[in-house]
Write a structure and sequence with these properties.
HMGL; about 45% helix; alpha/beta; 8-stranded parallel sheet; two-stranded antiparallel ribbon; 12 helices; TIM Barrel
């Protein structure tokens, strides 16, 4: 296999990972999380979102978070902007960052689109079009992410043709990058490869990423399957934070620590310090009062304990 020599990790823990937490996560905890990820070597991350606090109260402190985090020219800071109101609010921070990106989320499932953003797929594209136009006018990159690309909690299996359709529409309105998301974690390697193949009809391999949830324990297998196709960018979530509120039992994106361990074991560079990353994941997990969702982190932490005892 001609695996890539380098993989770019896009950590989504601070946004996708925390947005559905029932307990309020203070701004200073989010800022510490983001700064810790950057210190560990993460060079692209989702920082926050500009959505109505009525729907996502956890992200109501977007201004505070963006004002408080460390700014580095070699880091790409992504923010979710589902509509023009969100984009206008996000635009106020444009000059703070050398690399600033807005994210729009579509779906390959009509039912999921209705449940998640209260509109059809076609209507969602119409809603995103002015956001993409405005971003282009201000020199801001647009990343499009497609949810439920292999399975949906309401429709079941999703046809690759639907993935191709949404990819084509997002690229047509100005999305420069497409993320292929297995939102509820039901995908297996061949299904994921078919979804990626469908998207690749309309987007180059260098502008596509995989976003795999680990509900059925398949996320690392799916990551490897995508690597075999030449995909070299992946959304991951520190400590496996996250989940989907519209899919009962769905877990978060694959843990960043687990993907980094896999890649380093394959001789693929990420620029990330795994030990530092484990510390970041353990700290946010402790704050949330739960077990770290990364198997690699758990193993490393147990090893540290045994060495301390001995």
């Amino acid at each position: 296999m001609n695996y890539p020599n380098f993989v770019k990790i896009i950590d989504v823990g601070a946004r996708d990972g925390l947005q559905n937490e029932k307990q309020t996560v203070p701004s200073d905890v989010k800022i510490e999380l983001i700064n810790g990820l950057i210190d560990a070597g993460v060079r692209k991350l989702e920082a926050t979102s500009f959505v109505s606090p009525k729907w996502v109260p956890q992200m109501a402190d977007n201004d505070t978070v963006l004002n408080g985090i460390v700014k580095r020219d070699d880091v790409v800071y992504s923010v979710l902007t589902p509509n023009m109101k969100g984009f206008d609010a996000a635009l106020a921070h444009r000059d703070q960052f050398a690399n600033y990106e807005v994210v729009i989320f579509g779906s390959a499932s009509e039912a999921f689109s209705q449940k998640n953003i209260n509109c059809s797929i076609a209507e969602s594209i119409e809603r995103f079009a002015p956001v993409a136009d405005a971003a282009k006018a201000h020199g801001i990159k647009v990343r499009g992410v497609i949810s439920c690309t292999v399975g949906c909690p309401y429709e079941g299996d999703i046809s690759p043709d639907k993935v191709a359709y949404v990819t084509e529409k997002l690229v047509a309105i100005g999305a420069q990058h497409i993320g292929i998301a297995d939102t509820i974690g039901v995908g297996t390697p061949i299904k994921v490869q078919k979804a990626l193949d469908a998207a690749l009809r309309y987007i180059d391999i260098d502008n596509i990423s995989g976003h795999f949830h680990d509900t059925y324990g398949q996320a690392l297998s799916n990551t490897l399957a995508a690597l075999q196709m030449g995909v070299w960018q992946f959304d991951t979530s520190v400590a496996g934070l996250g989940g989907c509120p519209y899919a009962k039992g769905a877990t978060g994106s694959v843990a960043t620590e687990d993907v980094v361990y896999l890649l380093h074991g394959m001789g693929i560079e990420t620029g990330i310090d795994l030990d530092k990353l484990v510390d970041v994941g353990q700290k946010i997990s402790a704050f949330l009062g739960r077990q770290d969702g990364s198997k690699v982190a758990t193993a490393i932490l147990n090893k540290r304990k045994s060495l301390t005892v001995s």
